[in-house]
Amino acid sequence: MAALWREQLSIVLWSVATPVLETRTFSAGVFSSIATPFASKTALVAENDALRAALASSSILLLDRNLLYLENSDLKRRLGREASTASILAAVLLAPPGVPYDTLFIDAGSIEGVVAGAPVFAGGSVIVGKVSQVYPHAARVVLLSAPGESYDALLKTQDGTVPLTVAGMGGGSLAGDVPSGTVVRVGDAVLFPGIAPSFAAAVVSVTPTEGGSFLTLSMSLPVNLFGLQYVEVRPQTAL
Length: 239
Hints:
The chain is 32% helix and 35% strand. The protein is an alpha+beta fold and 239 residues long. The protein folds into 2 domains: 1-82; 85-239, Thrombin, subunit H (Beta Barrel). The protein has a 6-stranded antiparallel beta barrel with strand order 1-2-5-4-3-12. Strands 6-7-8-11-10-9 form a 6-stranded antiparallel beta barrel.
């Protein structure tokens, strides 16, 4: 009899508690669904604030760079060493793999003023190679990274500049050695010296040589050769 009474009491209590539990579960679900958009909105606001801060920082750096560039150009002009030279804009007709690697074929030639040996730039101060063969309305460009090509350059580090001879390794890659005591970091720039230095490559890896006396630097051209559409030829100088 007592067992039957306890069973009936349990049924009554469960019938009373079930709606309460369901209401609590429903309420938790409602609050969770309401809170989720607020959490997402908070995250978006924080992300937007971070992006605004990064953009402001980049804008300041860009403004500083532009001011320094104008100041540098003005100083060279005052001293009679203005570095501006006329450029011939050319479209890239063929690039790897359409032509042998480490070469380009462009749509400007001798009629447009292109001469053999003229340096070829991807834009601004980024140099990628030199003109090797010239036709009336076209030219062949051999890239700095072509096997057999070798150039004297400067490695620009946070501690100064170091003379460096870079050799083409093919596939947009270059290599060179510096003394083992040189502090080199991935991303350091390789420049061709001059009144207007040219950016030739960036360091991608540093490996000690077997004897330990030198560091071998692996470098790459600073542009995507497969996406290169236009180049500038500067025929007044030779590389």
